[in-house]
Specification:
This protein is an alpha/beta fold. It contains 21 helices and 12 strands. It folds into 3 domains: 57 residues, no CATH class; 254 residues, Rossmann fold, CATH 3.40.50.150; 182 residues, no CATH class. Helix 9 packs across helix 15 and helix 17 runs antiparallel to helix 18.
Length: 530
């Protein structure tokens, strides 16, 4: 039982936890623990309080013990310093790094650790210096390019995906933020006018009202989540019962407003995974983006639309990262512990992401350096990087040919884990980008069998062989991989390289639901002796 001396306000809890853990714990962090039932909520004369003993119990289950448990399971060679466990989410997703979701990207601090000019007990030498050129042949969403810019390094990216290259280049390019703001404002006003008198807006307003009353009665927050965590309520059985009960209310509203929810066709990703009202708004906004004269502004706004589209797919909140089946009615949400609904309009997310994008681009603009970064669309096994730079007509082409590339920092695709085109299928459908799925190395659809692994070894090593011709003599290649099949020693050998260092790091912040101990290696490769 908690005493009055044991109870802390949210502000006091924030200060106490910061001292207890030796790292910043914000009031938002404490509110999160209350909201998701990690600790109990107490009310004292209208003031929210938490128990210090509850906090100690919670933190003792995570701090210190996790490092010991992970090292026991993954090995004592685990470099916990590379976990970056004390970083907040805001720091891990700083400025342009969260312009658009992307599966499988590494955090910027990992890139910074190997590209900057510090040394420590593990990193005993400086691998890259300001003014040198780093290459990422599996550029993804451009994390290496952005961090290179921050550190005064030039960087070149290559990716087989046109959409990935678009994300990367928007992050590192300069933009006219005034024009961007004006065009976003114009589109937002037009979108509001477009939906002002639509039935689905009126439908959703009444639906939200009834949902709020229903959830307040049957899923009171945070009491419900706390009781679930204590084992007092069978979440799934109770949720299924209440889901069925509310479905009658939902269907009655659909009939009342004569709303058509499903699209008529199922020919494309956009047909399957978006409700009809949402699809109509997406098409409306896209038509407006095509009329924007400034091509740079047009691309940025289309990226905002893509980010909005991802959040508006007809799926449950728990399945947003990995789609299972389209959701067209209300449902019990495991993530939020209540009855939730699919989205019937993009407006809320569009406005939120528009403001966030301008803020992030402005933040990066303040710290960017006068260096060159660009991601080319191409196959890293065959691309002529210097020829592509020449075709750009940029003065940097001659600089690159004279200085050559100092090395690589990249996270290659894993074997049979992700379909890199399919994760952004909505964008390919809407924008009409050419898909090159057949050129992906190690895609999900090829599996992880022997043939797939052999193909992967050849593919990754061919990339290294091709890239070597653009390198300085004393190059360094850093590849981040969870090499559970032990393929990288063979990849290095086939590429005429040797692994000179290995850094094993715990991966604490994964997008997958599996939170079991997991590590990845950073392989440092150099040229093999002749």
């Amino acid at each position: 039982m908690s005493t009055s001396k044991d109870l802390l306000t949210i502000g006091e809890a924030s200060e106490w936890a910061t001292n207890y853990l030796g790292r910043r714990v914000s009031t938002s962090n404490i509110s999160y623990l209350i909201q998701y039932g990690r600790v109990r909520k107490f009310n004292n004369n209208g003031m929210t309080q938490v128990s210090k003993q509850d906090l100690i119990k919670y933190y003792r289950s995570h701090v210190g013990k996790r490092e010991l448990e992970w090292k026991e399971k993954l090995g004592e060679d685990l470099n916990w310093g590379l976990s970056f466990d004390k970083l907040t989410e805001k720091e891990r997703t700083k400025h342009v790094h969260r312009l658009h979701p992307y599966k499988g990207k590494f955090i910027p601090q990992l890139v910074e650790y190997f590209l900057d000019d510090h040394v420590d007990d593990f990193k005993r030498e400086v691998y890259f210096r300001p003014g040198e050129i780093v290459l990422d042949p599996f550029c993804g969403s451009g994390t290496t390019l952005v961090q290179a810019n921050e550190l005064g390094l030039h960087a070149i990216g290559v990716d087989i995906s046109a959409f990935n290259a678009m994300i990367s280049n928007i992050k590192v390019e300069k933009h006219n933020l005034f024009d961007l703001h004006d065009q976003i404002r114009r589109i937002t006003i037009a979108l509001k006018e477009f939906i002002a008198d639509s039935r689905h807006v009126q439908f959703e307003a009444e639906l939200v009202e009834k949902l709020t009353a229903f959830n307040n009665e049957f899923f009171p927050s945070p009491e419900f989540k706390y009781r679930v965590r204590q084992g007092e309520i069978d979440q799934m059985a109770y949720g299924a019962e209440k889901e069925k009960e509310f479905l009658g209310i939902f269907n009655a509203l659909v009939d009342k407003y004569q709303l058509q929810i499903r699209q008529q066709h199922t020919d494309s990703f956009l047909d399957i995974w978006y409700l009809k009202p949402v699809r109509e708004e997406i098409d409306f906004v896209y038509r407006l983006t095509q009329k924007i004269e400034n091509p740079d502004t047009r691309k940025v706004i289309q990226l905002i639309l893509s980010r909005t589209m991802r959040s508006c797919r007809a799926t449950t909140h728990a399945d947003l990262a990995t789609l299972i089946e389209p959701v067209t009615s209300t449902y019990y949400c495991r993530k939020h512990g209540k009855i939730c609904k699919p989205l019937f309009s993009i407006l809320g997310w569009w406005e939120r992401y528009s403001k966030d994008t301008i803020k992030r681009l402005a933040s990066f603009h303040k710290i960017r350096t006068a260096t060159f970064q660009h991601c080319f669309v191409g196959d890293s096994r065959t691309i002529d990087i210097f020829a592509e730079l020449e075709r750009m007509g940029h003065p940097f082409a001659k600089y690159a040919q004279r200085r050559k590339i100092k090395g690589i920092f990249s996270s290659p695709p894993y074997v049979g884990l992700i379909d890199y085109h399919e994760q952004h299928a909505y964008a390919y459908d809407l924008f009409g980008f050419e898909r090159r799925d057949e050129l992906e190395i190690g895609p999900l659809y090829k599996g992880q069998g022997r043939e797939a692994r052999e193909s992967y070894v050849v593919g990754i090593s061919d990339v290294l062989i091709n890239c070597k011709r653009f390198f300085t003599e004393d190059y360094s290649v850093f590849l981040v991989a969870n090499d559970k099949f032990n393929l990288y020693p063979r990849i290095a050998q086939r590429a005429g390289m040797r692994i000179v260092e290995e850094f094993k790091r715990p991966v604490l912040h994964r997008t997958e639901k599996n939170k079991s101990p997991y590590s990845e290696m950073i392989y440092h490769l150099k040229e093999s002796p002749k």
